[in-house]
């Protein structure tokens, strides 16, 4: 069991630890009331889905699968609609199709959605002109509008976030169960606005090749292969707002321990990964597979001590380490961590987040990321893992299926002038469809030879 230390654990034991990035709710009784209501609502995921994902992540640790984790930087209540959800799913399905075709490996598909409603911030307060207000911390906490009323943390937003997450999960499950992800018809996954993409021809060739392979296998089998009608799909979010996560942490029949039933694969952000912090305390006791963001300031000793707390039994599929160093720092910072973890024989899933270490601001005031830096960090990550004798088992990306212009460069070479055309994110810049598909093709070119060697 994860919480196998002598120190007792309970879903609320995090309250005795220093807690960072949590809002200050003005009404404690309203917070307690919202938590009690959450405890009575149905769970969003099941324990057997969680354990199935853990087994798949264990196989990814061994190089037998590849993890694709992607979605919005921060979901908003307003964008809980069928078009945005289905477009996001299409992007991830198309990326996974490219990866399966090129890597010749099963892909573990994990969406950053159905719960990604809270965000850490670098400052508690935000100032515009002469007015200073609490920072926007995601729709689960407060509103993005720069008004005193909107920025007050409201615990009732947790109930709304649960409802929006349930709607998203229900729609995604319905799409997948209804054949939306059917490999017999991958051409249905297209997005109309990218018909003229520079990668459209290459992608269509892949689709045709997979269709030919499916028909060939079914000819040999003498009938339709029904397991190609659907795919496994899982959810993830940064489990930042601990009052919400605590209320969703439950015991289930015929399974020991506690499960966070708000998501399959929660992670700890870089700002809240302190060894003696509240988030680490909470995560050490749940049975879900978990992950931790690892930045350039983390030392080998700090990382090993954190691993000892979060995965004391070296359990297969239990722990993912999402390194987010930045293209400029990864070559200097990552190798020592890889060597230390390998030397100690720790079983982890290494994942590359090439987004968060490459954020910058443009001369015209937009927060953005350069595609060239994202690409460089992924390429360097593959090379550094190969040199260390470790496996890069997945990628973690912020992306959308909408026609946004938030990241510079890519196939259409977006410039600073392009950013103002369709910059829609409420927090961090995301890859659009073309850029996301280009990343998938890059991974195939870098990882493919390693997988087949």
Automatic annotation (TrEMBL):
A GO BP term, please?
aromatic amino acid family biosynthetic process
Q: In the record's cofactor note, how is the cofactor described as bound?
A: Binds 1 divalent cation per subunit. The enzyme is active with manganese, cobalt or cadmium ions.
Under the heading InterPro entries, the entry gives: Aldolase_TIM (IPR013785), DAHP_synth_2 (IPR002480)
Keywords attached to this entry: Cadmium, Cobalt, Manganese, Transferase
The enzyme's E.C. designation: 2.5.1.54
Superkingdom of the organism of origin: Bacteria
Concerning Pfam families, the annotation shows: DAHP_synth_2
Q: Which GO terms describe its molecular function?
A: 3-deoxy-7-phosphoheptulonate synthase activity
What reaction is this protein's catalytic activity?
Answer: D-erythrose 4-phosphate + phosphoenolpyruvate + H2O = 7-phospho-2-dehydro-3-deoxy-D-arabino-heptonate + phosphate
Residue numbers binding phosphoenolpyruvate: 112, 293, 324
Q: Where does Mn(2+) bind?
A: 73, 356, 398, 428
Tell me which cofactor or cofactors this protein depends on: Mn(2+); Co(2+); Cd(2+)
Entry-linked SUPFAM superfamilies: Aldolase
- Family stated for the protein in its record: Belongs to the class-II DAHP synthase family.
Q: Which PANTHER family does this one have?
A: PHOSPHO-2-DEHYDRO-3-DEOXYHEPTONATE ALDOLASE, PHOSPHO-2-DEHYDRO-3-DEOXYHEPTONATE ALDOLASE 1, 2
Protein name (Swiss-Prot/TrEMBL): Phospho-2-dehydro-3-deoxyheptonate aldolase
